[in-house]
Design brief:
With 333 residues, the protein is mainly beta. A seven-stranded mixed β-sheet has the order 1-3-8-9-16-11-12, with no helix packed on it. Strands 2, 5, 6, 10, 13, 14 and 15 form a seven-stranded mixed β-sheet that branches. A hairpin with a 4-residue loop joins strand 11 and strand 12.
Length: 333
C-alpha cells in the first residue's frame, strides 16, 4: 500500500528555494528541480538537508508501507514506512531525517533506530545523530557523496544487510574474470556464480563459501574460462544460513565481435533473436544441430563463407551446434 497524494512541481531552471514541503513528489520530465546547498526539503515525513547542490530532475518520491528493494527473503525488522525514489539519485551530501508513528515500529526499540539507505546495489546504514523518541524521528549523521534509492529505519543491532560493495565482469584473454566484494557479511553461507545467455534464465557455474560474519571488506574472484560466443550475462546468488537470499547486479559481456582464431567457426549473433542463425565458416565444414535431449534437428555441409540458416521451424530453447571438433551452445529466443 502506498500514499497516493501526488504533487506536480514545475520549476524554472535555476529556481532553488530554501525550503520545499510536500506529500509525495513528482518532478516532471524536462523540468529542473535543483536544491541549492542548505535547502530543507520535506516530503511526507522525510526531510533532506543537503550541504551541496542536489538535483531531483525527473524523479518521484513515494512513501510505502512495504520494502521495495530486496534485503533477503527474511530481512531484519524495520519500521513500517519506506521512502522510494523512482531512480537512483545523483550524489547527495547532507543529513536525512525520517519521522515515524508508534504503530509503525514493529516491536523495535526507538532509541536504537538508524537510517538505512539503499544505493541501487546495496543497503548501508548510517549512525544517527538524534533519536527523538518523544517527537518520533531519527536524524542521521552527515552523509557524504552517497546516492539515494530507498530509505528505511532499522535497528542498529540488526540493520538491513550490507552485502554488495562491488561486482565486475571483465575480459581476461578468452575468459571472463568475475570479482565481487562485500562491505559486511551477516550469517552468510555461500555465493553461487550464475551465467545466462539472455539475462533471464541463469545456470550455476560454481559455488564459493562465504565468510559467515565479517565487518571488513572482503574480495572474491572466479575465472570463467569458457564463455559463449555472443552474449554472456553474469550474476552472484548469495545465500545465508537462515535461508535468506540476495542477488548481485547483472553484468554483461559480448564475445561475438571476432572469432578467436581464423580456424574457428563463428556465430554472428547468439542468442538468436530472430528466426535466422548466421554463421561464418573458415573453410568447408560439416555442421549438425541437436536439441538438449540429443535429437538431431539438421545436418548440413557448408562451404567457406557466411551462411544464414532458417530456424523458424524450431521451438524456442537451447540447442547444440556441432562440428567434428567443436560444440557450441545456442539459445533461440
Amino acid at each position: 500500500m502506498k500514499n497516493t497524494f501526488i504533487l506536480l512541481i514545475l520549476l524554472i531552471h535555476g529556481f532553488t528555494p530554501s525550503c520545499l514541503m510536500a506529500q509525495d513528489i513528482y518532478v516532471t520530465s524536462g523540468t529542473t528541480c535543483q536544491l541549492s546547498a542548505g535547502t530543507t526539503f520535506s516530503v511526507n515525513g522525510l526531510t533532506l538537508v543537503n550541504s551541496s547542490v542536489f538535483d531531483l530532475n525527473g524523479l518521484s518520491i513515494t512513501k510505502n508501507t512495504t520494502l521495495t528493494n530486496s534485503a533477503g527473503s527474511s530481512p531484519p525488522a524495520s519500521v513500517g514506512r519506506y521512502y522510494l525514489f523512482s531512480a537512483t539519485t545523483p550524489s547527495f551530501s547532507g543529513t536525512v531525517k525520517v519521522n515515524y508513528l508508534d504503530a509503525e515500529l514493529n516491536g523495535i526499540t526507538e532509541s536504537v533506530l538508524e537510517v538505512n539507505n539503499y544505493t541501487g546495489s546495496a543497503w548501508t546504514y548510517n549512525s544517527s545523530n538524534v533519536n527523538d523518541v518523544t517527537n518520533n524521528y531519527v536524524l542521521s549523521n552527515a552523509l557524504s557523496g552517497v546516492t539515494l534509492r530507498e530509505i528505511a529505519l532499522a535497528s542498529s543491532a540488526a540493520p538491513l544487510p550490507v552485502t554488495w560493495l562491488n561486482f565486475t565482469a571483465t575480459k581476461q584473454g578468452n575468459g571472463v574474470m568475475l570479482h565481487w566484494s562485500t562491505a559486511q557479511e551477516i550469517n552468510s553461507r555461500d555465493y553461487m556464480v550464475q551465467h545466462s545467455l539472455n539475462g533471464q534464465q541463469f545456470t550455476d557455474l560454481t559455488t564459493q563459501a562465504a565468510a559467515g560474519n565479517s565487518s571488513t571488506i572482503l574480495h572474491y574472484t572466479y575465472l570463467n574460462t569458457k564463455p559463449f560466443l555472443g552474449s554472456n550475462y553474469y550474476r552472484i546468488y548469495q545465500r545465508d544460513f537462515n535461508g535468506a537470499i540476495t542477488y548481485s547486479a547483472i553484468r554483461y559481456l559480448n564475445f561475438s565481435a571476432e572469432p578467436n582464431s581464423a580456424k574457428d567457426l563463428h556465430i554472428i549473433a547468439n542468442p538468436i533473436e530472430s528466426n535466422d542463425l548466421q554463421i561464418v565458416t573458415p573453410g568447408e565444414e560439416d555442421i549438425s544441430l541437436y536439441n538438449t535431449v540429443g535429437q538431431l534437428c539438421w545436418e548440413k555441409h557448408f562451404d567457406k563463407g557466411t551462411h544464414t540458416i532458417d530456424m523458424s521451424h524450431l521451438t524456442k530453447g537451447t540447442y547444440l551446434l556441432r562440428t567434428p571438433t567443436t560444440t557450441i551452445k545456442l539459445l533461440k529466443l
